[in-house]
Structures are given as C-alpha cells and as structure tokens.
Design goal:
By secondary structure, the chain is of the alpha+beta class. The protein has a domain of 62 residues. 20% of the residues lie in helices and 49% in strands. The chain is built from one helix and six strands; from the N terminus they run αββββββ. The strands form three sheets. The protein has a two-stranded antiparallel sheet. Strands 2-5 form a two-stranded antiparallel ribbon. A hairpin with a 2-residue loop joins β3 and β4. The chain starts with a helix and ends with a strand.
C-alpha cells in the first residue's frame, strides 16, 4: 500500500513540475501572400503484362516428312498476351523547392 501511495505521489509531482517548466513564447513573422507552392508531376499508369494470358493453341509434337526423311518436331504453345492496369495514370502535387 505504501508503495502504491509513493508511486502516485511521485507521478503527481512529476506532472506538476513538468507543467511549471513549460515555456511559452511568441514569434513575429513576416508572411507573404503565397501560403503554399506545389508543382504538378505526371505519373504514368502502372500496367502488369502476362505473356501467358489466354491459351490460343496447345503445345504439340508432330512429324514433318520431306522425301524419304522423317523429322519429329515440337511446336510450342501459343498465347494471347493480357494486360491489367494496376494503377491508372494521374498527377501528383510535389512541394516546391
């Protein structure tokens, strides 16, 4: 019990002493008519491309015959490329330097 009362008194004293040392001051400034300055900067769109978007033709293996020669050939798959806009193009305001 004494410990709790002691801690409470110490905290109260700390709060009172910090308020006593608070400093207040007034500064006179010459202000212009311009309150803020920003520059307009263009940000292009962010687009995600998928080269294996939509399957048009599956991979295949076949034979090509030329005269008396037979060759086994592989044809890779064919895809339509797809795109997705992650972030559209926009303008942002940057503070002047």
């Amino acid at each position: 019990m004494r410990y709790i009362l002691g801690m409470t008194a110490m905290l109260a004293g700390l709060c009172v002493s910090s308020a006593a040392f608070a400093e207040k001051y007034v500064v006179k400034e010459a202000r212009g008519t311009v309150m803020a300055c920003y520059q307009q900067v263009y940000v292009p769109a962010t687009v995600q491309y998928n080269t294996r978007g939509i399957l048009a033709k599956r991979e295949s293996v076949g034979w090509v015959v030329t005269g008396d020669r037979w060759e086994k050939v592989r044809s890779p798959a064919v895809y339509f490329e797809t795109s997705k806009t992650v972030e559209p193009d926009h303008y942002k305001l940057v503070p002047c330097k």
